[in-house]
Model the fold of this input.
Amino acid sequence: MFAATFGISIFAFFATRKTRRAQRYACHIKTIVQIDDDKHDATLFDISREGAKVKFHSGPNAIDRPMSVHLETGAISAQKMWANAHYCGLKFGRPLSKSDLATLVPAFFN
Done:
């Protein structure tokens, strides 16, 4: 009984992990992240339709307030999902369109 329950738990973990993670694309995109009236220089190191991994050059990584990420395709709202000493994971307020993603990381869409 334990083995069956454990097996189902492991299967469920990996099945849901794959479905909730969008494909990520490595990048090096300079950007501005606006939090309230403060603007912070940042770099995106990977991006997906759902969010991005960002490094702030100024300002805190662990900010929990809503923010806007200024991209070449326009500003998009975001919120911090995780942070460590070097990077911060952001979830966009809405998914990027495929054409926006292709504009931002064209090497992956040629």
